[in-house]
Design goal:
By secondary structure, the chain is α+β, with helices and mostly antiparallel strands. The protein contains 2 helices and 3 strands. It has helices spanning about 1-15, 40-45; strands spanning about 25-30, 55, 70-75. It is globular and about 40 Å long.
Length: about 100
């Protein structure tokens, strides 16, 4: 999980040109079948350990995608929402076609 969460965080930051000082906080959710580590541990490994990081469980809904981590990054920015690029990697690419760019 560590490698994949790091990859997702890096992709979010790079694709959106986010600077460390732009990040206010990060919320991670994980499905019930992931319990080897906290996703926030991966954020610490990429230099985000000084930010508020919160981990939570994804709702256990029948038919939902298994083995899934979601990241909600709160930013301080003047950009409009249309200028921000949402990132979906691997099997998560079909989760929200309206937001995927």
């Amino acid at each position: 999980m560590k490698e994949r969460v790091e990859t997702l965080l890096r992709a979010m930051i790079e694709r959106n040109g986010v600077r460390h000082d732009d990040i206010i906080s990060i919320v991670f959710t994980a499905t019930d079948d992931l319990h080897a580590m906290f996703p926030a541990t991966a954020a610490r490994a990429v230099g985000l350990g000084d930010l508020p990081l919160l981990c939570a469980r994804e709702l256990d809904i029948e038919g939902a995608m298994p083995r899934c981590v979601r990241i909600l990054m709160h930013l301080s920015t003047d950009r409009v929402p249309q200028d921000l690029r949402h990132v979906y990697l691997e099997n998560a690419q079909g989760l929200n076609d309206e937001l995927r760019t």
